[in-house]
Amino acid sequence: MTPRSFLLTAELADYVRASSEPVDEVMADLIRETAGMAERGEASPTLQIAPEQGVLMRLLTRALGVRRAIEIGTFTGFSALCIAEGLPEDGSLLCLDRNEEWGAVARRYWERAGLADRIELRLGDALETLRALPAEETFDLAFVDADKPGYAAYVEELHPRLTTNGVVLLDNTLRSGRVLDPDDESAHVLAALNAALAADPRWETVLMPLSDGLTLLRKR
Questions:
Q1: Spatial CA neighbour of 83 closest among 143, 123, 129
Q2: Kindly report the CA angle at 72 between 88 and 89, in degrees rounded to 5?
Q3: Are strands 68-72 and 92-97 parallel, antiparallel or unpaired?
Q4: Residue 80 within any structural domain of the chain
């Protein structure tokens, strides 16, 4: 099943995709393979971003003139593929993840798309890897789609490593509409983060009802 926003019916989701720039053949095949993995119980279907979100990320990468990007949480590589397609030929994307099996799937599609030379995948604890990077303005764009309790720490570590006007994208910030559920402990974490970011003067912040909730942060 193709991932879609929890706010949309299947019919509306199809309409959204039909009214947007389509994914290319390599991306479509990756989406299908990942869906097959989910059907076999080899991965959670909620880990895959919606195609229209990937198209938006590719558009933003191009429109912002991103040259260096970082991704925390790569899964099977669809979001990385979208970002990499938006980079110039000399651009680069650093991906941080811990799952070697999913990383192997990602690398296969990056190679097929001819973009493997733009993408580096580092396996291990993402926060430790991030903290080991030089604390200097390096990245123009960051995408975070990893463990939700770790989001606050990722944002803090990304701030000094982003260029001025650099953008951070945080996925799943509406938690499929459960962000206000008082009985959902994970939702409490995201709700607290959303409130803190909206009040943080270091960031210009907007939470968009796209897919599972996508927060955009611009470093002032």
A1: 143
A2: 10
A3: parallel
A4: yes
Q: Give the dihedral of Cα atoms 62, 67, 68, 71; nearest 10 deg.
A: 10
For the domain that residue 79 is a member of, what is the CATH number?
A: 3.40.50.150
Long-range contact set of residues 87-90: C-beta below 8 Å, sequence gap at least 24: 87/61, 87/118, 89/118
Is residue 4 assigned to a domain?
A: no
pLDDT, one tens digit for every residue, the chain (220 residues): 578 888 899 999 999 999 999 999 999 999 999 999 988 998 887 789 999 999 999 999 999 999 999 999 999 999 999 999 999 999 999 999 999 999 999 999 999 999 999 999 999 999 999 999 999 999 999 999 999 999 999 999 999 999 999 999 999 999 988 999 988 888 899 999 999 999 999 999 999 999 899 999 999 9
Distance (Å, whole) CA 122 – CA 125: 9
Task: Extract the tokens encoding 111.
Answer: 């190679």
Which residues form the domain of 62?
A: 10-219
What pTM was computed for the model? 0.96
Kind and range of the H or E run holding 26:
helix 25-39
Indicate whether 102 belongs to any domain.
yes
Give the number of domains in the chain: 1
